[in-house]
Specification:
Residues 21-321 form the Histone deacetylase domain. With 358 residues, this protein is α/β, with parallel strands linked by helices. Helix content is 37%, strand content 15%.
Length: 358
């Protein structure tokens, strides 16, 4: 597989932390340690990689997606109330969305560094990866949610359109949870194709196959609710039968990815069985689409992933794909059997709804 240069940004947000929480300050350092061990760094491979300077997003860049009131509340909560819980839901106590004193600034830096990755991709032939936290795909226009303060991928999508004058943006979200915030922000927008592969009936309860957009955006939201136990074969089958034809029909100017690694079988939160090799397969397939459709413009943004081993292996395999290397892991043939019939039923339903086969 042909490869190019990878431009990556790193925002570990060490101050944005809550003891015992899944989304904690150890996540990005664990990834960085694994990348260093595998020599997947700009220092080890300067001809294939470069590390970007991080920057904070401006108020205008955030407010292309979020309200000024949301920004003001997040800034005030960090300055006056932190450490505090800013959004809770009916789940375990350590699944709350929290604010530490540095969280507002960290969230601005995360979003801005995603935009730096976009700029790097637009400036040349590089692919981009923003290793950032806090994550973003649950955050809505007016609210934080699900560990997320600002919706990084949505901010990046609007930035592609407003700063770089790209008309059509495709977003793929392969986090185990449904990106309800991203869906809501673009639900009536036909300039953004949003495809979300997530666990069926998982928190936050959205993402059903019949959620397809409305108004001008009718048909440009595609949900693929994967049955419990879906693994490597199911993920790649869904990509080939749904993601690929839908993206080719849409013909985007850029492809953005909410890259969550919590669908891995080792992750503690949900019940999909992706493997480390699955992420190599997904990212290499996305590269091929980007090269064919949009001059190679492809940017990944880190979302979930809460087992440090599977998170690190997934990111390392994504890096390998992006620079044209080989997968670091073989497909495990001894993995639990996948619910093949249920997977085929879901895929066939989505294909029929969106008329993806002639």
């Amino acid at each position: 597989m042909a490869g190019g240069q990878l431009a990556y940004s790193v925002v570990p947000s060490l101050g944005h932390d809550l003891a015992g929480h899944y989304e904690n300050a150890k996540r990005v350092p664990a990834i960085l340690e694994a990348l260093q061990q595998k020599r997947l760094t700009a220092a080890a491979q300067p001809q294939k990689m470069r590390k970007l300077q991080s920057r904070a997003a401006s108020a205008a860049e955030i407010e292309a997606v979020h309200s000024s009131a949301h920004m003001a509340v997040m800034k005030r909560r960090a300055a006056e109330d932190a450490p505090c819980v800013i959004a809770d839901f009916e789940c375990l106590p350590d699944n709350t969305t929290y604010m530490a004193p540095s969280s507002f600034d960290d969230a601005l830096l995360a979003a801005g560094s995603a935009l730096a990755a976009v700029d790097a991709v637009m400036d040349g032939s590089a692919k981009g990866f923003a290793l950032i936290r806090p994550p973003g795909h649950h955050a809505g226009r007016e609210n934080p949610m699900g560990f997320c303060i600002f919706n990084n991928i949505a901010v990046a999508a609007r930035y592609c359109q407003e700063r770089h004058h790209l008309k059509r943006v495709m977003i793929l979200d392969f986090d185990v949870h449904h990106g309800n915030g991203t869906q809501d922000l673009f639900y009536e927008d036909d300039s953004v194709l949003y495809i979300d592969m997530h666990q069926q009936e998982v928190w936050p309860g959205s993402g059903h196959a019949n959620e397809i957009g409305s108004g001008k955006g009718l048909g440009t939201t595609i949900n693929v609710p994967m049955p419990v136990g879906s693994g490597h074969e199911a993920a790649l089958k869904a990509f080939q039968r749904i993601v690929k034809p839908a993206t080719m029909r849409f013909a985007p100017d850029v492809i953005l990815v909410s890259a969550g690694y919590d669908a891995h079988r080792l992750d503690p939160l949900e019940h999909l069985n992706y493997q480390s090799a699955t992420y190599y397969g997904l990212v290499s397939s996305l590269m091929s689409l980007a090269d064919e459709l949009c001059e190679g413009r492809l940017v990944l943004l880190l979302e979930g992933g809460y087992n440090f081993q599977s998170l690190s292996e997934g990111v390392c395999n994504s890096f390998q794909a992006l620079i044209g290397g080989q997968s670091l892991h073989e497909v495990d043939s001894s993995a639990p059997a996948e619910p093949e019939r249920e997977v085929d039923e879901v895929i066939s339903e989505v294909v029929a709804i969106h008329k993806l086969e002639s």
